[in-house]
Write a structure and sequence with these properties.
Blueprint lengths: L1 H33 L14 H4 L10 E10 L7 E11 L5 E12 L4 E15 L5 E15 L29 E13 L3 E8 L17 E8 L1 E8 L2 E16 L2 E12 L2 E8 L12 E10 L2 E10 L2 H5 L3 E10 L2 H9 L13
InterPro entries: PorP/SprF_Bacteroidetes
Protein name: Type IX secretion system membrane protein PorP/SprF
Length: 353
C-alpha cells in the first residue's frame, strides 16, 4: 500500500513536470513556426510609458532613467522574464524630447530570447493655456534567437539513462533580425490625458522557418486626476489625488481592456488595475487583478506590482512579479524661470507607476 502510494505521487509529479515542460516547448514551437509573435506586457504601464506610447517622452520630467523587470508564470518550467531600460530627456526649448528604449525577453528552459533597442522622439505643443498635445515616433532594431543548449533530443538518451553530448537532429534556425517603427499622440491638460499609439507599422517578419509577422499593435489610454490636496511648500511639492485610468490594446487576433484606480499621497502611490474587462464580440478573457505600490525618495522612485489571477488557467501557472526603479529629475528653478518667461509647459497628470 505504501509502495503504491509512493508510485502514485512520483508519477503525478513526473506528469506535472513533463506537462509544464511540454507547454513551454509547445509555446516556443508555435512561435517558431505557426503563431504570430506578440509584444511584452508590463503591469506598471506608466513606469514603462514609452513602451505603450512614444509621445510620453519628456512629459513627466526634465530627464529620467528607468529599469524594469517582470517575472511571469513563476511556477512554470521556463518562466517568462522581461527586462527593460528606458530613458528620456527633454530639451531646453521645451518643445522636443528624445528617448531610448531597450527590451530583453527570455524563457528559461527553452532558450528563446528577443532583444530590441531603439530611439524615441517626441514634440510637444501648447494649444492654449490649458490644453497641450504631444506627438511621438519610435524606430527599433530587434534580434530574436533560440538556443539549443538546454534541449535534449530523443537520440541523445541511452538505454541506461545517460545523456549523450551529440544529436542527429537538425538545429540550424538562424537568428532573426528585424526593424520596426511606431507612432503615437497624446492630448492632455493638468487634469486629464487621452492618447493613442500604433506600433509595428511595417509588421516585420519574425519567423525562423515560415512567414510569421509581428502584427500591428494598437494602444489606447486615458485617465483623469482628481486633486484632493495640491501644495508647494519650500519648493517641495505635495499632492493627494485619485486617478481612474483605462487602457485598451489590440494586437493580431487578441485584445485586452483594463480599468484601474491610483491613489497618490506624496511620496506614496497605490494602485489597483483589473485586466480582463469583457468586450463586445470577443471571447471571455483571462481575468487578472494587479496591485501596485510605489514610493519616491528624493529623485528616486521604486515600484512593485503583483498580478493575482482570477481565472483557473492562469492561476495554475502562477502570478507575475514586476519591479521598477527610476531616477527622475525636475529642475524647479529652471521651471520657475520658464514660468516667468511664459515658456513653461504643464506636465502630464498620469501616475508615475
Amino acid at each position: 500500500m505504501r509502495v503504491s502510494c509512493l508510485s502514485y505521487h512520483l508519477c503525478n509529479q513526473l506528469l506535472r513536470t513533463c506537462g509544464q515542460w511540454l507547454l513551454s516547448v509547445a509555446g516556443v514551437i508555435g512561435c517558431v513556426q505557426f503563431a504570430q509573435a506578440q509584444d511584452l506586457y508590463f503591469a506598471q504601464p506608466y513606469a514603462n510609458r514609452m513602451q505603450q506610447n512614444p509621445a510620453y517622452a519628456g512629459l513627466l520630467d526634465d530627464y529620467s532613467i528607468t529599469l524594469s523587470y517582470r517575472n511571469q508564470f513563476p511556477t512554470l518550467a521556463g518562466t517568462f522574464q522581461t527586462s527593460q531600460l528606458a530613458a528620456d530627456y527633454r530639451f531646453r526649448d521645451q518643445h522636443s524630447a528624445a528617448g531610448l528604449l531597450v527590451n530583453y525577453d527570455r524563457t528559461g528552459s527553452v532558450g528563446y530570447t528577443r532583444f530590441q533597442a531603439g530611439g524615441v522622439y517626441a514634440y510637444h505643443v501648447r494649444l492654449n493655456e490649458q490644453l497641450s498635445v504631444s506627438g511621438g515616433a519610435s524606430v527599433s532594431y530587434g534580434l530574436q534567437r533560440v538556443s539549443y543548449g538546454n534541449l535534449v533530443f530523443g537520440d541523445q538518451l541511452s538505454d541506461d539513462g545517460v545523456v549523450r553530448d551529440y544529436s542527429l537532429e537538425v538545429a540550424d534556425y538562424k537568428p532573426v533580425h528585424y526593424v520596426t517603427a511606431g507612432i503615437g499622440g497624446l492630448l492632455y491638460t493638468e487634469r486629464f490625458w487621452v492618447g493613442a499609439a500604433a506600433h509595428h507599422l511595417n509588421q516585420p517578419n519574425l519567423g525562423f522557418v515560415t512567414q510569421s509577422s509581428l502584427p500591428l499593435r494598437l494602444a489606447l489610454q486615458g485617465g483623469y486626476k482628481v486633486y484632493l490636496v495640491r501644495t508647494t511648500v519650500k519648493r517641495e511639492y505635495k499632492e493627494i489625488s485619485l486617478a481612474p485610468v483605462v487602457n485598451y490594446t489590440r494586437q493580431g487576433g487578441s485584445q485586452r481592456a483594463e480599468a484601474g484606480l491610483y491613489f497618490t499621497a506624496t511620496p506614496l502611490t497605490l494602485g489597483a488595475v483589473y485586466r480582463g474587462v469583457p468586450l463586445p464580440g470577443s471571447l471571455r478573457p483571462q481575468q487578472v487583478l494587479t496591485a501596485i505600490a510605489g514610493v519616491g525618495v528624493g529623485s528616486f522612485r521604486i515600484g512593485y506590482s503583483y498580478d493575482m489571477s482570477l481565472s483557473q488557467f492562469s492561476s495554475d501557472l502562477g502570478g507575475a512579479h514586476e519591479i521598477s526603479l527610476a531616477l527622475r529629475e525636475f529642475d524647479s528653478l529652471e521651471a520657475a524661470w520658464r514660468r516667468l518667461k511664459r515658456r513653461n509647459y504643464p506636465t502630464i497628470p498620469c501616475p508615475a507607476f
